[in-house]
Amino acid sequence: MxxxxxxxxxxxxxxxxxxxxxxxxxxxxxxxxxxxxxxxxRVVVNMGPQHPSTHGVLRLIxxxxxxTVTEARCGIGYLHTGIEKNMEFRSWTQGVTFCTRMDxxxxxxxxxxxxxGVERLLDIEDxxxxxxxxxxxxxxxxxxxxxxxxxxxxxxxxxGALTVMTIGFRERELCLDLFELITGLRMNHAxxxxxxxxxxxxxxxxxxxxxxxxxxxxRLPEYADLCNANPIFRARLEKVGVLDxxxxxxxxxxxxPLRATGYPWDLRKTQPYSGYQDYDFDVVTWDTAxxxxxxxxxxxxxxxxxxxxxxxxxxxxxxxGAPVMVTDKKIAWPSQLAIGSDGMGNSLDHIRxxxxxxxxxxxxxxxxxxxxxxxxAGQAYVPVESPRGELGAHVVSDxxxxxxxxxxxxxxxxxxxATSVMAEGGLVADVIVAIASIxxxxxxxxx
Amino acid sequence: MSxxxxxxxxxxxxxxxxxxxxxxxxxxxxxxxxxxxxEVVEVRRGMFGVTGSGDTSGYGGLVRPVTMPGGxxxxxxxxxDEVADNLGAALxxxxxxxxxxxVVVHRGELTLFxxxxxxxxxxxxxxxxxxxxxxxxxxxxxxxxPEDQGRELHAVYHLLSMTHNRRIRxxxxxPDGDPHVPSVVSVYPTNDWHERETYDFFxxxxxxxPALTRIEMPDDWPGHPQRKDYPLGGIPVEYKxxxxxxxxxxxxxx
Lengths: 447, 254
Fold this sequence. Notes:
Chain A has 447 residues and is of the alpha+beta class. In chain A, 48% of the residues lie in helices and 13% in strands. In chain A, strands 10, 11, 12 and 13 form a four-stranded antiparallel β-sheet that branches. In chain A, helix 4 packs antiparallel against helix 5 (107-122) and helix 5 (107-122) runs antiparallel to helix 6 (130-158). The longest helix of chain A is centred in the N-terminal third of the chain and has 29 residues, at 130-158. Chain A is globular. By secondary structure, chain B is an alpha+beta fold. Chain B has helices at 33-36, 79-94, 119-128, 191-202, and strands at 39-46, 62-68, 100-106, 109-114, 136-144, 153-161, 166-174, 180-182, 205-207, 237-239, 242-244. The interface between A and B is large, with 58 and 60 residues.
């Protein structure tokens, strides 16, 4: 009696490629016995797409010899939602609402790279108000922390370090609380808009940010205490998923995998955007080019992000009441959103103005909201350093009110190509570690 | 020798101070005058998007040519000229003197239109020539211009030189009836998945790709979804008695 016979949905069946076993748990003996009959045959294990260790809806096709992986392939596309296609049917501003949903762990970066591209096409790069720039940097760096926390948390969970997972999500919650305070939403903010950001900082936000930084400074060392010298953690991560500098460049890997080879390439430093040249921070590198190095890079980068957040908060304190959107009324969103007792909504003053005082203001509001602004024809590509590497939006305009084409070069998509190189020749268990060290987010991979 | 400190990278510099397409250099003779004309990719008729005609109603039947930025004459400005010189010399040496169709400088970004037969050779030079050294490719993106006769499909490559801290864009066109572009996977292995994605979404066939299969859509999916002739789809949604049409049937202002 094999386990597969009990399960009407998982029968051992004969296919053109050989027998198929569906591993459902607690049935290892029967699978081993079944495979033993065909000892000379190769074993292909299909891991995922619904598997708790594959970091999302990722399908891995592994060819095994014993416990050694001889070939590894990725099957992706399970989260493809056609965001890029949908953006071609919405206005330039509405595009933000779509692209923020791609890489759901770093929404602000999706918004930022798209908006930077649109702003370059509009030729208003120099007109973005300082406060909007600082708020973008602030939000992106909080987002970097929350994203790295998930990377470390899920990576830890996948090798059995459950405490790392629980404390990782505990701290991520603090980041999401800040997002909720500032943007009104915990994810999918659509807060960074072409021309600036959606609204000003709410009262009291700076104090909460400072509290957050102080608390993080107390809690970040916990990760180092739990992991850095932990013999099990090191044994699982060190010399696993190795990819050196030339491998990274050939396969297009950026972000922590690239910096873990010792190459200090960080777009925030090398090709600054949003005023990153005005902040004092260091580019973190490591020299082992393995999963452990990538973990250490992420851990140290969170400290650097805290430094940037502190500087941004200090600058914001001096920018009380400054504009957060370009002054060009043909681009700036007309409805002044405000957080009221019933959540975020239109400001009553603005509604009074357009409904009761000025016909022209009403026409302007209507035109800009329904039709949107026109962007001069051309194309732009302004990448940003997302937590996972180079994230760029290739934005093409035909001079209309909608993106003619918006293509996102997502670092998760590109970095995931390295799975084969990192996994082949290693053990099955190390595949999980290698993938976790790349930190792919399937929403960004499939878009 | 790779930099060990962030400060050791050369400073990133804009290739050009002003928008070079806006300059009218009377003294510069363009090599091929037709390459400098703005590229009309489509002519639209409708009620929106035309300025300066005096017709604010749109009922006169507005005609709007969709023009992409045209070629830029020398000097391009900044390091753009240096790259163009180095590439020109390398191409002449490699026996591909006519590889570059057109050079566009727009919004401070340099785009080289490459004849598709020469793409692989250009990519090799771009990566290997020490004066160019674009060792990093950010992938390929497709664009579909259905009305641009004979140049319907564009493949756009973004290259990055970490050595010189420069970015450049290569653009290749191919007609819809013959959607073939040489694969650059042998030069930039990172383009493996990117080319599969562009094939999946646009139907551009990258000749020489090791395994050009669909990557995002199911293997048996009909059509290529990002093409302009592929409908977005969707159904009307009813909410509180009102019906909201699917996005691709709503009024467009393009």
